[in-house]
Amino acid sequence: MDNCIFCKIAKKELSSEIVFESKNVIAFRDVAPVAPTHILVIPHKHIASLNELNTEQRKILLPEIFECIDELVEKEGLKEDGYRVVNNCGENGGQTVDHIHFHLLAGRAMQWPPG
Ligand code: 5GP
Ligand code: ZN
N or C end of the chain: smaller count of CB under 10 Å? Predict the structure, then answer.
């Protein structure tokens, strides 16, 4: 997608601090972190949201995204204190960038319910 900032980050046309990359998945630090650790995990392929994942992509991409999260949890030393993984989907979910992404948040105690 021409106008998608996350596609541009995935193609390295826009700079970001990349912390993980595999064939299908890339992770980078959020430009406006809301926790000491705030990483976004996305597929390289432009998929607008969780709603748009087809059955095949659900089978292939979701496990890869969670493998990436596992690796980051290990690498960033987050296992012991815990962390939160968030996907915002659509308007009510609070999604602001229309390229599916999972937030990995850690480094402080989170509250519940979300605002
Ligand atoms: P959403 O609200 O859609 O779930 O999350 C979008 C996230 O993308 C926000 O946390 C926002 O700070 C982050 N973001 C928006 N633009 C950029 C950017 O250009 N670079 C990076 N690294 N993060 C971005
Ligand atoms: Zn995109």
Answer: C
